[in-house]
Design goal:
Number of helices: 5
Largest sheet: 2 strands, parallel
């Protein structure tokens, strides 16, 4: 199961009881390191895998989520908790997640275009999908300031 936990005000002692419980039960946590107070990770269990999405592309985040979902499905199949039909549903879910990631990348390129032909869309997507350089992070920060993004 995938859960989204809001960081609230960011103060570790102000997280909701449900949020702290979900973090404590999670096997994998992917958090936005540029936005989330790292003290909130203290609620994670010891063997939890923690990823900072600030250093990942959207596709890498989706890949981690998909990999974890597939791993859990195999565990449930082995224990007899679910059927092979559930695998088809899982496959559809992961395909949809990958499509969402691709669309988000395309939308992001369109939003950042101020004038027509300002960016070469294909080279921009290749840069974002591979490891973005300092220019990308500088432009992202400029957009955050200009459009008051949190």
């Amino acid at each position: 199961m995938i859960n989204f936990v809001g960081a609230g005000s960011g103060a570790a002692d102000l997280i909701t009881v449900r949020g702290a419980k979900l973090l404590g039960e999670a096997d994998v946590i992917i958090y936005a390191g540029s936005l989330v107070n790292p003290e909130l990770l203290s609620y994670a269990k010891r063997d939890c895998q923690i990823y900072n999405s600030a250093h990942m592309t959207l596709e890498e985040v989706i890949d981690e989520l998909s990999k974890e979902m597939k791993r859990r499905h195999v565990q449930r199949l082995r224990s007899g908790e679910c059927t092979i039909e559930m695998g088809f549903i899982l496959s559809d879910i992961t395909t949809c997640l990958e499509r969402v990631a691709d669309h988000c990348s395309n939308i992001g390129v369109c939003v950042t275009q101020v004038n027509e032909d300002l960016y070469d869309t294909h080279s921009h997507l290749n840069t974002v999908k591979s490891h973005p350089d300092e220019t990308f992070y500088r432009e992202l920060e400029d957009a955050r300031i200009k459009y008051q993004l949190s």
